[in-house]
Amino acid sequence: MKRRECLTMALLAGLPVSSSFAQATSDKPVRLLVGSAPGGGTDAIARMIADALAPMLKQSVVVDNKPGAGGMLASEQLTRSAPDGYTLLVAQNGHTTNPAFYKKLPYDTLKDFTPVASLAISPLVLVASSESGVKDVKGLIEFGRRNPKAMSFAVGDSSTRMAVEQISSALHLSAASAIYKGTGPAVADVAGGHVPFSVTTIASVLPFRSTGKLNFVAVAAGQRSSFLPDVPTLAEQGLPGISAQGWWGVLGPANMPQPVVDRLNGEIGKILATPEAKRRMLGLSAEPWIQTPHDFDAFIRKEVPEIVGLARKAGIQPE
Question: How far is Cα 234 from Cα 244, in angstroms, rounded to an integer?
Answer without folding.
Answer: 10
